[in-house]
């Protein structure tokens, strides 16, 4: 059996994380993905190379693809790309709009060559507005979108990130979903289209209700926070104080939080997730405490209630330090409380849950040897994804791709002689 996208051909002009991840997901589903790279390799291939032109970061985002190493700025390369576009279903790109136009791989140019082309365009900030033509990476969009400040910690080394490149990763999944939707639309109507997404909109999506403004629900708290934040900025208040203002807003909105958070234990840390009144009751029963969180009239903004909640939080935090993580896991699980120890990702390859579900897959890389990676995020009974190939060495498939569009060996040699291809 083969994946559901067998027969779909994708031409990828992307680099770093979001675009490569989205296209890797499409390759996992069976699409033939041709990754266009400059002859010296894309930046992520060159990042922390452990052998020449190969890096762990690149390998983790480009499995199952073919590599076309070509200098798109050269006229001969552009002519070859235009011939290739006639033979593909989808173009995925994350270049700035002005760069794509200059290289003659923008949507108006390519859709004129292939009218039913699906052109998936990922930018940092969106195509319109004052930031449209600015370059942007995950760290920049995390800062702009409020993800960085959501960490609510600061030290002498500056504000920490949220860990993985969450804006990039979410955008990769959005890119994949948009491509699938456009392919479905074309299958019904024969119409191609441009699909746009950006790091910014996906970062805002991660915030969900925190980005939304619903005056009836949070108008007073939100307005008070914005007023306090503006006052702090006008008076030259240090950034660390901004975070305290935000923490005060969150405490006012959430009350004493002992139900959905992490606790330090005697030998590590554990998380608890109880988002319903029934689950919160199980937390209280398992740990052994009383709290009026789910009683009528509970008001987390009442000063007296705030004092009660703060005392409860301190008491439960101290209690968790008296037992090991394993002991708390056993006790909470027996009580029906969703919980989990806090692990490091390097431990997960051998985790029994990962092994049981075959969430890690093995590849043999042509240059690097054995590679274990995360499996595709879906299992499908009729068309299972089969990620059978590791990422390609730079330019491995250049001759094959170019000969496939009708270029002769002499024409390919001429392009190589002028430095247009690797």
How much beta, percentage-wise?
Answer: 5-15%
The best one-word shape is: elongated
Total number of distinct structural domains: 3
Which range best describes the helical content: under 10%, 10-25%, 25-40%, 40-55%, 55-70% or over 70%? 40-55%
| SSE sequence, one letter per element | EHEEEHEHEHHEHHHEHHHEEHHHEHEEHH
- Report the sheet with the most strands, covering strand number, pairing sense and barrel closure: 6 strands, parallel
Poorly predicted tracts of residues: none
- Describe the oligomeric state of these chains in a short phrase: single chain
Terminal CA distance reads 35 Å
The CATH class of the largest domain is Alpha Beta
Can you give keywords for this protein?
single chain; 422 residues; alpha/beta; formyl-coa transferase, domain 3; 17 helices; 13 strands; 15% strand; elongated
Describe the structure.
The chain is an alpha/beta fold and about 425 residues long. The protein has 3 domains: about 10-205 and about 360-415, Rossmann fold; about 215-255, no CATH class; about 255-340, formyl-coa transferase, domain 3, CATH 3.30.1540.10. The protein has 17 helices and 13 strands. The chain has helices at about 20-30, 55-60, 75-85, 95-100, 105-115, 140-145, 145-150, 165-190, 200-205, 215-235, 240-255, 275-285, 305-320, 325-335, 350-355, 400-405, 410-415; strands at about 10-15, 30-35, 50, 55, 65-70, 90-95, 120-125, 195-200, 260-265, 270-275, 340, 360-365, 370-375. Strands 5-2-1-6-7-8 form a 6-stranded parallel beta sheet, sandwiched between helices. The protein has a 3-stranded antiparallel beta sheet with strand order 9-10-11, with helices on one face.
């Amino acid at each position: 059996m083969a994946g559901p996208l067998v027969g779909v051909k994708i031409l990828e002009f992307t680099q770093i994380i979001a675009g490569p991840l989205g296209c890797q997901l499409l390759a996992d589903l069976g699409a033939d993905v041709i990754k266009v790279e400059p002859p010296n390799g894309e930046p992520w291939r060159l990042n922390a190379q452990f052998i020449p032109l190969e890096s762990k970061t690149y390998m983790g985002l480009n499995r199952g693809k073919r590599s076309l190493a070509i200098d798109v700025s050269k006229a001969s390369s552009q002519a070859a790309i235009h011939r290739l576009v006639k033979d593909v279903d989808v173009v995925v790109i994350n270049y700035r709009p002005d760069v794509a136009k200059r290289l003659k791989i923008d949507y108006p140019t390519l859709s004129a060559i292939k009218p039913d082309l699906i052109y998936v365009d990922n930018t940092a900030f969106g195509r319109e507005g004052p930031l449209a033509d600015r370059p942007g990476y995950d760290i920049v969009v995390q800062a702009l979108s409020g993800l960085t400040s959501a960490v609510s910690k600061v030290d002498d080394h500056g504000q920490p990130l949220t860990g993985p490149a969450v804006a990039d990763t979410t955008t990769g999944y959005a890119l994949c979903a948009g491509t699938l939707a456009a392919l479905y639309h074309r299958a019904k109507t024969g119409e191609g289209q441009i699909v746009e997404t950006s790091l910014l909109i996906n970062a805002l999506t991660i915030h969900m209700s925190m980005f939304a403004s619903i005056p009836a629900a949070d108008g007073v708290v939100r307005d008070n926070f914005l007023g306090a934040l503006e006052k702090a900025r006008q008076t030259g208040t240090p950034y660390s104080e901004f975070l305290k203002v935000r923490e005060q807003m969150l405490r006012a909105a959430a009350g004493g939080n002992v139900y959905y958070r992490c606790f330090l234990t005697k030998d590590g840390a554990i998380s608890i997730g109880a988002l319903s009144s029934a689950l919160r009751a199980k937390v209280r029963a398992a740990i052994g405490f009383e709290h009026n969180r789910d009683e009528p009239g509970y008001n987390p903004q009442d000063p007296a209630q705030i004092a009660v909640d703060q005392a409860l939080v301190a008491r439960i935090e101290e209690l968790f330090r008296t037992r090991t993580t394993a002991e708390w896991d056993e006790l909470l699980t027996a009580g029906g409380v969703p919980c989990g120890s806090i692990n490091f990702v390097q431990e997960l390859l051998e985790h029994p849950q990962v092994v049981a579900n075959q969430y890690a897959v093995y590849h043999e890389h042509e240059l690097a040897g054995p590679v274990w990676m995360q499996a595709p995020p879906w299992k499908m009974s009729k068309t299972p994804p089969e990620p059978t190939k590791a990422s390609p060495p730079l330019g491995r498939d250049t001759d094959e791709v170019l000969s496939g569009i009708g270029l002769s060996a002499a024409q390919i040699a001429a392009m190589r002689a002028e430095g247009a291809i690797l």
